[in-house]
């Protein structure tokens, strides 16, 4: 694969559904041109592909020089034009910069601090048992993604928000339509108008939640968001809805991908599964390795605010950079034998949760959920094998396995 083709791979949603193709391209970029200019027009606007761990860290550390607005994620050129003409359809923590980012993050930050989350530990373990029990009830064969992992973290985060369980399937469908815009199986449609309709459906749902929590405040996270004030004023309708949407979607989809990809790796590497079963003290390091291995968030974009240099390249003010997390997490300069799945890998300096001001707010919760699930599953799992071909979602932003057929024996 030549360097130009490798760069264009990053703007091809189908490449993320073909891990061999993706990682071949990323290795070419790391070795030959780790800060590489990619011009995929007319489908996408051009950008610098940042593929080395050290360069990603440099960008993440300088959040005033490299900002999220106006292009926080890679979307089609048509969507970029729509945003330029109409403004952002969402204003989540992903979309905004300091000092506003810091103020908006403070609205929900206390809910995701380790001390607060420790109070959820019993509930999370109970839910982990519920879904491992479901695997047992399914009779030794299932699509692990569709029948187990999409529901477990969904239940955790939506319960934290305080939403009724009867609404969970609706939120799941909207999440898949939002993140699956490039996947024919998951998408509602590809156009900006169809994406807008997905968001409007989210907004309509959460508008009712906001009205209810303001009239009848409760102790849940939804009530905290609905009644939050900055400078004495409630959040705008857009900011309120955006807070709900990012928590209700990223708060479960990425964790689901990690757990599914983690079990897939354990099935593909039975010696590591047996090692982990014999030594459950390795579960925390195993979960970190799963997070590195899967890397559910594929990229974020940054825009340079001034002329600068990165990795020996001159970056112009206003030019965009794509931070390629799957590449950074397989960087040979940082990880010993990075294409080996190692449940005891330590240290493990993966960047799956980002770094610096924009580090993932839900990282601690995601780790807790994955650890609880595998702590429940592994002592009960006698054996497991593939029952068909796994399938990954087509995406340029967030994704992972969408189907994982398994056969197994579980106690």
Automatic annotation (TrEMBL):
Q: Which key words tag this protein in UniProt?
A: Cytoplasm, Heme, Iron, Metal-binding, Monooxygenase, Oxidoreductase
Per the UniProt entry, what are the Gene Ontology biological process annotations, in alphabetical order? Answer: cholesterol catabolic process
Got a GO cellular component term for this one?
cytoplasm
The lineage's top-level taxon is: Bacteria
Name one molecular function that GO assigns to this entry: cholest-4-en-3-one 26-monooxygenase activity
Query: For this UniProt entry, what is the primary localization, expressed as one broad class?
Result: cytoplasm
Q: Where does this one sit in the cell? A: Cytoplasm
**Keyword set includes Membrane:** no
Question: Of which family is this protein a member?
Answer: Belongs to the cytochrome P450 family.
What's this protein's name?
Answer: Cytochrome P450
Q: Which organism is it from?
A: Saccharopolyspora dendranthemae
